[in-house]
Each structure stands twice: as structure tokens, then as C-alpha cells.
């Protein structure tokens, strides 16, 4: 009787040598003599034969394993990546292309070679892998998608304020959102080609986003779900615009502000963000392009030479009188307005917004004395400033003028917006006198300055600048410019005595005005009452 | 060298690649990409990752083109590189996440657990259709250890001899002989119940197999497929 275990061939497992030999026989790895020996054994041993058949049957069953056809995208991308590693050395390649099997390849290879030439520079810095290319749409949007917990949040915010939808129309934001959706539709080779069309800074930014996305897997699953929901939505374009706009807003916040926002419930957050979006969008809209900055700087030179401004300036200096605006200081201010009009107008404009009276700085506070002077001059410009502001606005790029008109701003908000624009132009404005001061420094002097503690260096620079300009801030103190307390509005009377004489008459610096309390113990609203000037 | 050059068309192609012939490289990629990706998919468990690794393999081949000297079949060299890359990938994955899944899905092209009805004992005489057989084979392959699985793939689909598989895996031919013998025995244990009676490899079978082979590293679904 035959043992069933022998019949199914499993008993031979107890004979590992026989098993190995049977397998090797099937694999044609036995020498001829051993193969003949095993054939003899199979003929004589039913169990061995059954086992051999079983092994063979299982081996043939492996033919059922699928071998999926790799898509052409993989081949193209692989070849392009290889091109990026140096396969572009195809100067003699044209003759070889003719021998290729398919007629299309002569067209494809030069394209790949050209693409490789483009890719090689970039790939030297960042070689995107298949996984990177595949995850690219998600990586691009990941930072934005993790700013909120659901697309419903964006919908809620958009219902509260139209500013989100308006921000989504910003060309830069719209382009960002468009990238997400477009790249999502691309094949991997198209994504690779797309990446090579970007400038290096954009590529670097994307590389960082991808790296950040790949290393931060904490929220990856939820972000992936959000992304899938976004791209599958019928309103994908609109939602992507919202998401990109919200991301741009969040990016404008400090880390602390973002953290604070995250602590709020979605409803609270949406309400708070809705309040801020209008101003943020306005500031964003008012951002000058480099070309616009140069054009505005040119316009501002015309503004300071215009009749409106010349008259306003005369009025301001006349109001200050020769004691607070002596000729040497006026010369400095004129020079600043002429050589760096954006910066000078910006300081004047800021001074007009100042609600509290100008206080005198400490006697040894050289730098703040200079600021105080500007504030006093600016105070004198208050009445003239609206006309000056109009002059400035007429020279702004049209989109900024339109934005200012459409924003429904109060007078103060509008001035703040104009000053924000001036501030951008001022960032590249260096007054001639300051430039000359620095240009006149030798390397040794520069080294000497740099070796000083920062405060000491600034004091030295201020003193040296004054000496160079023929003006010292010590003089202004001695003349009592800052000791008069709060400035009055409107024209002054006859010219006041200067120098120590004035100081004696007006007395020592006034203490800060104490806030008067109401009977309920609360500070009174509005400007504090002006102290009576001492009688002459 | 002359032997391999003459007998292995891949070696001839690779020598042309060494002369910066892009058409030869394309031909090599096309000839091997399907099988390489399939083998790597069985090694790392996800086709997406396997494609990425395959790309890396081809790029390494390309970068080494100037140093290439035929001393074996081209596929031996190719899979030697692939094995190292797959091993590194699995180590990275293991470092990234310690959680292990109980069952491998050996590829993403249809490697799912058997349909419960089809796999039940209710249809012992039924002739398995192609999909069922495929699933059963995939499940059986998943029970193999990493080296066993690679050896099986190379022997079955790349038709490499024991010595060549030994070169790929860093083993002697005798070691490969034993390795393949154990692998085929494991496959038979896993597949024969299905082939004979329509009983799929069960979770229990898989668990036992895994417990027996401590060297196996399971595939981690740690990176979602986002497309």
C-alpha cells in the first residue's frame, strides 16, 4: 500500500538532497551523469515522480504572474534623466539615428537631447525622481492645503467676505493656483519638462516645497485627501484660487500670528481673517514692480519741483520760522527732497499722520533729534499734504490708482496707503548727502566705523555728517528747537529768539503730557489740552 | 569577455552605450524595463516605488557605461544593481516606519487578496480562471523570503543559471541551489492546495511562513500614492 504522504510527494521533503536534486534537474543545472541518475530514480520511485510533477506544475503556474507593460512615460523620463547626466554628447549622433527602428525616433531623440541640455544645468542641483514627479502637484499645493482643515472653511470665508475671491484674481495668486491644476493634469515627463522651463529661483522654491513635503509626513494623508478633493471638485479652479489666496495671506503673517490663528475655531478664524483680508489685499495690490519703482521715483522728483509742493514747502518753513527751520537745516531738508524725494516725502507724510505732539528727545540723543526735525517740518505740512498727496497719486501706475479708488478708504487710510507706496520707492532712495558721506570714507575709516559698537557708530556718523553738511544737531538743541513742547498748528507770530536766549525764555523741556482722567478714572479721549506758552 | 559579447545581445548594446550611443541605451531600457519593474515590485511591494528604483538602476547603468567591462551576462549585472538598490530602499522604509503590515500586496497591478468566494472550498473542482490563479501565485510569492523571491524571479523570468544568480545575490552556486530548493518547496506548499482543491493560501499560511522566515521585510504603505 502506498503511503498517501509519499503519493503527494511530500515525504521526499524529508530527503532534502533528493529535493534539491529534483529542483536542479528541473532547472537543468545538473551535470549529465547526475541528470541521468535522477531520471532513473524518477522512473523507479513513484513518490519522486509525483514530487517532480508537483514542483514543475507550481513552477509553470508562475507564468500567470502579470508583467505589466511599462508606460512610455517611464521610458521617456528615464532617457531624459540619463540625458541630464551627460548623454547629450551626441554630436555624431545624427548618423546613428538613421539606423533606429522606428521612424519617429529621429524626431524624438533630438528633442530628448535638447531637453537634456536644458535639464542638465538644473538637474545638477535637483534631480526629481519618479516619485517626486508624481507627487509634484501635491507637493506644490501642500503648504497651502495645510493652512486650513477643509475646503468648506474656504467656502465659509468666501461667504463672509468677497475679498478672498478678489484676492484669488491677483495675477500671481491665480498663476499659482493654475500651476497646481495644470501640473496635476501633466504626465510625468511633461512635469519634468515644465520644471526645466522655470527660472532658477522658482525651481529652488519648488525643490524646497517638495523636500518639505517629503520630510513632513505628519499631515501627509490629510493633505493628500484635501488635494484629491480639490482637484476632483467641479469648482476646482475657484477653490484652488481661494486656497492660493489664503496661503498668500497666511504667508504674510508672522509665525506667532499664524499660530494664534490656528488656535481659533474655524468660525472664529474665518471672521478674524475676513477683517484683515481687505487691508492685506490692498497692501499686496500696492506692491510696486521694479520698473514701477523707477517710474515713481522719477515722478516724485517732479512732485517736489511742482508748484503745489514748492508752495507747501514755503508755507511749512514759514510756519516754523527761522528758529526751528534755520537756513542750514532747511538746506539739508531741501537737499534730501531733491536727491531722495521718495524717502523725504515719506517722512513728511508720516509726520502729518502723527496724532501726538512732538516731544523733545533727550539731549544726547543725536539720532532722534534728526527724526524730530522731520516730524516738526511734517507737522507744518498738514494742511498742504492733501494737495501734495494728489500730486503723488497722479503719477502712480494706473492699477494702483484704480485700487486706491476702489478701496473706499478713509482719508487717513488713503494717506497710509500712499505712504506705503512711497516707502517702497524710498527703499532704493539714498540721499546725496548720505551717499557722499559714505563715498568719502576711506577703507581705513570704514573699518574704524565698523569696529565701533553700533550705537557709538551711529552717533559718530551723525556727528560727522553734520560736520560735513555744516550743521550739528548740538546747535539745534542749543537753539532750543526741541524745548518748546508740543507744536501749535497755524502760523506763528513774530520770529522767536534763537539759541540760549530762546531756551531761557521757554524754560526746560516739558514733561510728557499726563493723561487727564475722567471722573470715572478713565483717560479722557481726544487731544490733551495744550499747555499755555509762557508769557514773554 | 568575447564569449559574453558574442552571446549576449545586451552586452553588445551596453558596449554601444559606452560609446555614447543613445539608441543603444534606449533599446536596453526598453528590453529590460518591464521585467525589472516587475521584479522590483515584488521586492518592495509598490509599483510606483519600483518604477522609481528601476529608474535609478538604469541611471546607474548609464553612469557606469564608461567603466563597463563584460564579465557576465548583462542581466546579471543589472539585477545585481537592482538587488542592492531594492535592499537600500527597504532599509530606508524600515527606518521610516516600524509598523509592519501582515500581508504583502506584491504589486499594484491586481495583487489583491483572493476573492473569498473564489477561494473558498465551495468550488474545489472549479478550474481557476486566470485572475484567480494570478492572485494565488502572487500570494504564494509573497510568502517567500526576500532572497528566495529574487532567486525565483531571476531563475524563472530572467533564465539565469545558479552561478549567475549567485553573482547577483552574492552567494555560491551551491547556496543558490539550496535557496531555490527551499523556495520551490515553499511555493508548492502555498500553491498546491489551490491548484488541487481551489483553496487559497490563507492568512494563517502567510503568517506561518512569515514567522518562519525572519529575514523577510514587509512592505510599508507609508507613502500614499497621490496621483
Automatic annotation (TrEMBL), chain A:
Listed transmembrane segments: 104-127
Basic and acidic residues bias: start-end ranges: 481-491, 517-536
Disordered: region residues: 481-536
Key word Transmembrane present: yes
UniProt keyword list: Membrane, Transmembrane, Transmembrane helix
Domain of life: Bacteria
Protein's name according to its UniProt entry: Zinc-finger domain-containing protein
Species assigned in the record: Botrimarina hoheduenensis
Native organism taxonomy: Bacteria, Pseudomonadati, Planctomycetota, Planctomycetia, Pirellulales
UniProtKB/TrEMBL annotation, chain B:
Lineage of producing organism: Bacteria, Pseudomonadati, Planctomycetota, Planctomycetia, Pirellulales
Keywords: DNA-binding, Sigma factor, Transcription, Transcription regulation
Domain RNA polymerase sigma factor 70 region 4 type: 136-187
Xref: PANTHER family: RNA POLYMERASE ECF-TYPE SIGMA FACTO, RNA POLYMERASE SIGMA FACTOR HI_1459-RELATED
GO molecular function, one term: DNA binding
UniProt GO BP: DNA-templated transcription initiation
Family in the record: Belongs to the sigma-70 factor family. ECF subfamily.
InterPro entries in alphabetical order: RNA_pol_sigma-70-like, RNA_pol_sigma-70_dom, RNA_pol_sigma70_ECF_CS, RNA_pol_sigma70_r2, RNA_pol_sigma70_r4_t2, RNA_pol_sigma_r2, RNA_pol_sigma_r3/r4-like, WH-like_DNA-bd_sf
Entry protein name: RNA polymerase sigma factor
One Pfam family named in its UniProt record: Sigma70_r4_2
Superkingdom, natural source: Bacteria
Domain RNA polymerase sigma-70 region intervals: 28-95
Amino acid at each position: 500500500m502506498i503511503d498517501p504522504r509519499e503519493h503527494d510527494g511530500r515525504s521526499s521533503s524529508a530527503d532534502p538532497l533528493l529535493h534539491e536534486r529534483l529542483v536542479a534537474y528541473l532547472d537543468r543545472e545538473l551535470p549529465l551523469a547526475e541528470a541521468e541518475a535522477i531520471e532513473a530514480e524518477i522512473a523507479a520511485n513513484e513518490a519522486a515522480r509525483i514530487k517532480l510533477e508537483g514542483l514543475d506544475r507550481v513552477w509553470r503556474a508562475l507564468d500567470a504572474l502579470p508583467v505589466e507593460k511599462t508606460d512610455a512615460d517611464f521610458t521617456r523620463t528615464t532617457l531624459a534623466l540619463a540625458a541630464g547626466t551627460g548623454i547629450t554628447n551626441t554630436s555624431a549622433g545624427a548618423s546613428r539615428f538613421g539606423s533606429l527602428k522606428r521612424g519617429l525616433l529621429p524626431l524624438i531623440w533630438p528633442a530628448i537631447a535638447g531637453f537634456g541640455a536644458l535639464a542638465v544645468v538644473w538637474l545638477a542641483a535637483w534631480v526629481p525622481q519618479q516619485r517626486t514627479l508624481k507627487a509634484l502637484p501635491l507637493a506644490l499645493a501642500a503648504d497651502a492645503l495645510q493652512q486650513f482643515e477643509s475646503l468648506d472653511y474656504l467656502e465659509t470665508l468666501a461667504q463672509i467676505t468677497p475679498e478672498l475671491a478678489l484676492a484669488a484674481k491677483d495675477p500671481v495668486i491665480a498663476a499659482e493656483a493654475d500651476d497646481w491644476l495644470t501640473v496635476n493634469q501633466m504626465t510625468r515627463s511633461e512635469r519634468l519638462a515644465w520644471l526645466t522651463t522655470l527660472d532658477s529661483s522658482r525651481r529652488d522654491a519648488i525643490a524646497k516645497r517638495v523636500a518639505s513635503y517629503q520630510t513632513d509626513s505628519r499631515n501627509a494623508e490629510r493633505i493628500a485627501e484635501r488635494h484629491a478633493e480639490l482637484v476632483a471638485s467641479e469648482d476646482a479652479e475657484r477653490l484652488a484660487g481661494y486656497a492660493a489666496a489664503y496661503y498668500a495671506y497666511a504667508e504674510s503673517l508672522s509665525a506667532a500670528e499664524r499660530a494664534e490663528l490656528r488656535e481659533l475655531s474655524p468660525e472664529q478664524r474665518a471672521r478674524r481673517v475676513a477683517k484683515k483680508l481687505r487691508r492685506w489685499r490692498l497692501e499686496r495690490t500696492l506692491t510696486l514692480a521694479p520698473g514701477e519703482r523707477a517710474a515713481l521715483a522719477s515722478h516724485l522728483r517732479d512732485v517736489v519741483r511742482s508748484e503745489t509742493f514748492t508752495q507747501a514747502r514755503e508755507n511749512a518753513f514759514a510756519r516754523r520760522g527761522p528758529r526751528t527751520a534755520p537756513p542750514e537745516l532747511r538746506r539739508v531738508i531741501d537737499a534730501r527732497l531733491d536727491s531722495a524725494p521718495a524717502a523725504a516725502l515719506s517722512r513728511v507724510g508720516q509726520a502729518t499722520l502723527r496724532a501726538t505732539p512732538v516731544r523733545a528727545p533727550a539731549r544726547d540723543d543725536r539720532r532722534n533729534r534728526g527724526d524730530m526735525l522731520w516730524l516738526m517740518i511734517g507737522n507744518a505740512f498738514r494742511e498742504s499734504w492733501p494737495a501734495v498727496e494728489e500730486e503723488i497719486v497722479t503719477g502712480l501706475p494706473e492699477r494702483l490708482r484704480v485700487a486706491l479708488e476702489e478701496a473706499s478708504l478713509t482719508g487717513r487710510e488713503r494717506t497710509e496707503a500712499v505712504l506705503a507706496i512711497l516707502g517702497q520707492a524710498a527703499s532704493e532712495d539714498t540721499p546725496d548727502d548720505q551717499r557722499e558721506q559714505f563715498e568719502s570714507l576711506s577703507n581705513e575709516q570704514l573699518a574704524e566705523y565698523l569696529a565701533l559698537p553700533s550705537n557709538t557708530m551711529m552717533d559718530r556718523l551723525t556727528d560727522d555728517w553734520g560736520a560735513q553738511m555744516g550743521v550739528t544737531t548740538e546747535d539745534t538743541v542749543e537753539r532750543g528747537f526741541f524745548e518748546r513742547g508740543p507744536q501749535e498748528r497755524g502760523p506763528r507770530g513774530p520770529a522767536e529768539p534763537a539759541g540760549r536766549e530762546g531756551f531761557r525764555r521757554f524754560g526746560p523741556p516739558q514733561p510728557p503730557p499726563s493723561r487727564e482722567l475722567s471722573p470715572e478714572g478713565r483717560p479722557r479721549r481726544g487731544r490733551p489740552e495744550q499747555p499755555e506758552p509762557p508769557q514773554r | 569577455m568575447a564569449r559574453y559579447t558574442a552571446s549576449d545581445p545586451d552586452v553588445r548594446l551596453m558596449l554601444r552605450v559606452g560609446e555614447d550611443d543613445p539608441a543603444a541605451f534606449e533599446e536596453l531600457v526598453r528590453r529590460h524595463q518591464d521585467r525589472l519593474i516587475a521584479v522590483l515590485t515584488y521586492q518592495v511591494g509598490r509599483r510606483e516605488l519600483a518604477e522609481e528604483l528601476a529608474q535609478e538602476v538604469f541611471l546607474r547603468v548609464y553612469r557606469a557605461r564608461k567603466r563597463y567591462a563584460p564579465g557576465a551576462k548583462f542581466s546579471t549585472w543589472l539585477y545585481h544593481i537592482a538587488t542592492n538598490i531594492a535592499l537600500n530602499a527597504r532599509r530606508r522604509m524600515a527606518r521610516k516606519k516600524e509598523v509592519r503590515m501582515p500581508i504583502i500586496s506584491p504589486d499594484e497591478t491586481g495583487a489583491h487578496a483572493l476573492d473569498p468566494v473564489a477561494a473558498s472550498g465551495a468550488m474545489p473542482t472549479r478550474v481557476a480562471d486566470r485572475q484567480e490563479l494570478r492572485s494565488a501565485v502572487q500570494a504564494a510569492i509573497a510568502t517567500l523570503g526576500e532572497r528566495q523571491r529574487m532567486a525565483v524571479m531571476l531563475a524563472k523570468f530572467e533564465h539565469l543559471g545558479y552561478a549567475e544568480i549567485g553573482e547577483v545575490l552574492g552567494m555560491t552556486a551551491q547556496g543558490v541551489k539550496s535557496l531555490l530548493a527551499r523556495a520551490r518547496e515553499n511555493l508548492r506548499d502555498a500553491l498546491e492546495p489551490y491548484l488541487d482543491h481551489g483553496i487559497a493560501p490563507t492568512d494563517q499560511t502567510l503568517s506561518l511562513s512569515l514567522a518562519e522566515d525572519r529575514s523577510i521585510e514587509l512592505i510599508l504603505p507609508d507613502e500614499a500614492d497621490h496621483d
